[in-house]
Amino acid sequence: MKSWDIIIVGGGIIGLSLAIALRRRGARVLVVERGEPGREASYAAGGMLVDCSLETPPALQPLAVASARMYPEFAHEIEVESGAKVDLRDQGTLFIPPAEHVHERPGFTMAELLPAPLSELEPELRAERAFYLKERSVDPRALSSAATKAAKNLGVDFSSGDSVSAVNLSEGQVTGVTTIKTSFLAPKVVICAGAWSGQIAPCAFPTRPVKGQMLCLAMPSRTLLKHVIRSPKAYLIPRSDGRLLVGATVEEAGFDKRTEPDTIQRLHRAALELVPKLRDARMLEAWAGLRPGTPDGLP
């Protein structure tokens, strides 16, 4: 029976990037994915590469900064190994802080932190003040697709549409996994199943799904917005092809991935308040994804 050095459970961008890195080092790798690779949380994500956030715990800040610095090289390698583009953008983010976090000192304004007047950076944005952050964004759908191609080109094996029910043990040692279809052998197993990680026996990971609803608009002009916009009510993420993502909610709703018209309309209204010219934008789609959550909110 065929065996592998490592089995990765979950084919999102975390599982895929790990599979690629291990395969580059010569490991025989199998990715087992309950659906299609990159079609769950990775597919639903906005793709903001945030390394400076009010929500980031201080202990994680150095890791967030290090990760952001590594991303351009990571994205380039994926593009080279897949032959596909991932739409990594480096125009930066305009962060509109909540009113309670705005404390301008005498003789100092937030405008001094902008590389140009706000009206020049984003003429159509309706905001009085904002911080400029040197952040990037990526198209997670393009990235996941490219990473899947790269992994296959490197020789990573896949079993898609195959849910892992258990990690197999013998005398305290990992021997592989059991799936709804069959079983696979490997002395090492890495769980990258996101919100579903806690459903794999005997691993009692305290994960839970955290629902996020988003929508996508077709901007009237590809250059209507250049920067990612982060505000208390919504964030706007422009893509190079003229799409604009608007998100997102944070909901405790179990594994329910249905969208709610009232919620999507609320996000749409928030986008229009920020950029009134989006009234001419056509809505392309709306969706919901499930982020992996933990009791303490940490990875």
What does this structure look like?
There is one protein chain. The chain has 299 residues and is an alpha/beta fold. It is built from six helices and 16 strands. A seven-stranded mixed sheet has the order 5-4-13-14-15-12-16. The longest helix is centred in the N-terminal third of the chain and has 22 residues, at 61-82. The two termini are 35 Å apart.
Short key terms for the protein model shown above:
single chain; 299 residues; alpha/beta; FAD/NAD(P)-binding domain; D-Amino Acid Oxidase, Chain A, domain 2; 2 domains; seven-stranded mixed β-sheet; four-stranded parallel β-sheet; 6 helices; 26% strand; elongated
Question: Nutshell version of this structure?
Answer:
Helices cover 24% and strands 26% of the residues. The protein is built from 6 helices and 16 strands. Helix 1 (13-24) runs parallel beside helix 5.
SSE topology string: EHEHEHEHEEHEEEEEEEEEHE
Question: Please, how many domains?
Answer: 2
CA radius of gyration is 21 Å
Kindly state the mean pLDDT as a whole number?
Answer: 94
Distance between the termini: 35 Å
Going by CATH, the architecture of the largest domain would be 3-Layer(bba) Sandwich
Q: Which residue ranges are poorly predicted, with pLDDT under 50 across at least 5 consecutive positions? A: 105-109
CATH topology of the largest domain: FAD/NAD(P)-binding domain
CATH class placement of the largest domain: Alpha Beta
Fraction of residues in H or I helices: 10-25%
Largest sheet: 7 strands, mixed
Helical segment count: 6
| Strand percentage | 25-35%
CATH superfamily of the largest domain: FAD/NAD(P)-binding domain
Give the overall shape.
Answer: elongated
Helix and strand content put the structural class at alpha/beta
Please provide the count of β strands: 16
What order do the strands of the largest sheet run in, or round the barrel if closed?
5-4-13-14-15-12-16
